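Progress against Task 2.4 (sequence-to-structure conversion) is shown through the following example record, which the project officer requested during the mid-term review.
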Amino acid sequence: MILCSCGDGAGQGDSTQRTTSSGNLSGLSIDESRKLRGAAAREAQLQLQACLEERGFPSQMIDDGMLQVDVGGQHEAYERASAECDEVVDYGAAAAPLSETEIRWLYDENVQAFDCLVAEGFTPEEPVSFAVFLADYQEGRPPWTPFLTAESNAPIMTQKCQEPSINLEE
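Structure tokens generated for the chain above:
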């Protein structure tokens, strides 16, 4: 089984993903852009699911919005199908670069999550400055997240402190 997702737009951009006219989010509030991004991500996941199934890879959407794909030992064929599907799926607003305002929102939400994780007894990596977070995002490096432990860089999983997403789930 392989899990795949359209992502949350918070990582580095993928130049193979295209935006459509619906990908222009300038002038929208954070809530409006999050709703549009979330709807576009959900639609893209449905398109991806249909495309993969057309190519012989059954899948099901699981609770967190990811696709669970049964590759049945056909990893190379799956990789080809996945690449083909990425060319035809319209990622729209889900793939639009984040504005500096959206990046600031994401940073602030991660700092709040850091405080929550510390209160829960976890030892996440200390926050970087916003300037470093912004530069990392803009230069294609993974931006800081409190959901990795400082000691081992292992992921922190908790229900109490939610990892922020620029895609609003509905």
